[in-house]
Design goal:
This protein is mainly β. Helices cover 12% and strands 46% of the residues. The protein is built from 2 helices and 16 strands. The chain has an 8-stranded antiparallel barrel. Strands 4, 5, 8, 9, 10, 11, 14 and 15 form an 8-stranded antiparallel beta sheet that branches. The radius of gyration is 30 Å and the shape is elongated.
């Protein structure tokens, strides 16, 4: 009887060891292994980087591809500066104080490509779609001395004249493309195998050649319209500071993106 019990216990121990070993084998039919299928999992992510703060949803498309969609935005940081106007008109001040505020909000659609079935290194292609106004600026002190002349006289920029609205404010924008293709690479899976994961991405947004947009451009009939200035339209004599700044901006046709992303798998 004792020998029978010992034999039974020994058999149970051997069976347990065998089942444990087989559970670690991906071919064991009773243990469900994690696999990247076609939209069979869902991840949620929060990111922080040069493109600001981001939130997105992600899903795998097999072992080698993944899709992400979400938003990214920058807090509306602002700063004030003083600019010389180089104006000879006695009705216009010699300089103006202006407030410049970031204005970034984009929807994003990205596709990750994983060369290795089990690896985390990936290439990413996609696009950011949002506002074409990267930053906004307006004067904080009136540069037209006589309020009766608001909207009637203004600064000369090349062959154009920039005036103000009826309250004495002029509004300018740093203008880029609203559709910005993206190309990058990184490490980490957007949908982690574990419940929580971490990833890193580096790439560039192609936002085109920046321009200076001014809402209060005055036409020959005394009406205002929105005009996008190029550096070639500005005169060195009258607009040296603006022209130099715009020439530098026009050379920056891409925006670098470095992003750290914390992700969680919810399905």
């Amino acid at each position: 009887m004792k020998r029978t019990c010992k034999s039974l216990l020994l058999g149970l121990c051997l069976t347990t060891i065998s089942l444990s070993a087989q559970a670690q084998n991906s071919n064991f039919p009773f243990v469900k292994q994690f696999e990247y299928g076609y939209f069979n999992h869902l991840g949620i992510g929060a990111s922080l980087g040069l493109d600001g703060i981001g939130f997105d949803l992600a899903a795998p498309v097999g072992n080698h591809f993944g899709l992400r969609t979400g938003i990214s935005f920058m807090p509306k940081f602002s700063y004030e500066d003083n600019f010389d106007l180089h104006e000879s008109d006695p009705d216009i001040t010699d300089n103006v104080d202006a407030k410049i505020t970031l204005n970034v909000f984009d929807f994003k659609l990205l596709a990750d490509i994983y060369p290795s079935k089990k690896g985390s290194f990936h290439f990413t292609v996609g696009a950011f779609i949002g506002s074409d106004k990267f930053a906004k600026a307006t004067n904080t002190l009136m540069f037209i001395k006589d309020p009766a002349k608001y909207g009637k006289i203004g600064l000369i920029l090349g062959d154009y004249r920039v005036t103000t609205d009826e309250k004495g404010y002029a509004h300018g924008d740093a203008v880029v493309n609203s559709f910005k293709p993206y190309l990058g690479l990184g490490f980490g899976r957007a949908v982690p195998k574990k419940r929580v994961g971490f990833s890193f991405d580096f790439g560039v947004k192609f936002w085109g050649k920046p321009a200076l947009g001014v809402a209060e451009t005055l036409d020959d009939w005394g009406k205002t319209y929105y005009h996008k200035f190029k550096s070639s339209e500005l005169d060195d004599k009258d607009d040296e500071d603006v022209k130099d700044g715009l020439e530098i901006a026009e050379k920056v046709c891409v925006f670098p993106v470095i992003t750290f992303r914390l992700s969680g798998r919810i399905l």
